[in-house]
Amino acid sequence: MVQVKKAAITEAINRSAFELFSEKGYSHTTVAEIARRSNITTSNFYRYYDTKLDVLFAVFAPWLRTHLDALEERAAAIPDPHERLRAIFLGIWRDIPRADNGFNNTIIEALAAFSPDENYSKALLLESEKRVGRMIADCVSVERLSVIGEGKLAHLMFMGGDGFAINVKLGGPAPPVEEIADMMCTLILGNAE
Fold first, then answer.
1. What's CA 152's distance to the chain center, in Å?
2. Residue 182 clears pLDDT 60, i.e. is over it
3. Among 20, 40, 41, 98, which is most exposed with the fewest C-beta within 10 angstroms?
4. Contact yes or no for 106/96 (Cβ under 8 A)
5. d(Cα 91, Cα 96) in Å, to the nearest integer?
């Protein structure tokens, strides 16, 4: 007999996983804890997800898309290209890494333990970089964009964002993100004076 997956159970697993990953991180969260908080058995969890990593991707992708939607909306409302680009840098390097108790760090933690023979898809990263690349393109002249390449800068922003996310999770001294964003805007757009 075919098992029917129930939307309410999927939602409970996803909610529980998000809460636990936010509270404890990826490596300190177990499938048994996710199942217990979801009011299901561990074996029932495996009817819905093959691994803990699968449930992480299931909750991380919509979380990141929601944050990028908000960033895109904020940036679109800023008429000045310098301030708009600054907002994009701050969104990727400050706001997203700090959101939900540093939830962004959870994906970094999970991928750091990934082995080369596992089937990792870069689809979400590429999709996200493309979105940020379009935001950047709206801030930069065609001449400057041909020098920096929207895809290369977006990739650099996400790689830098990982470092900022790790710093948030470790509770290190707050880097001067605003000053770094200002510096990057000046490097990319030139001096506005």
1. 17
2. yes
3. 41
4. no
5. 6
pTM of the model as a whole: 0.90
The end-to-end CA distance of the chain, in Å, is 71
- Two tokens at 1? 């007999």
Q: For residue 95, what are its two tokens?
A: 């706001």
Using the predicted structure, report yes or no on whether residue 63 has a pLDDT greater than 70: yes
Residue 117, token pair as written in the block: 């023979």
Token digits of residue 189: 């757009």
109, HSE (Cβ side, Cα atoms, 13 Å):
22
Measured distance CA(38)–CA(11) in Å, rounded: 9
For 117, counting Cβ atoms within 10 Å of its Cβ (0-12 exposed, 13-18 middle, 19+ buried), the class is: exposed
**CA pair distance 13, 126, nearest whole angstrom:** 26
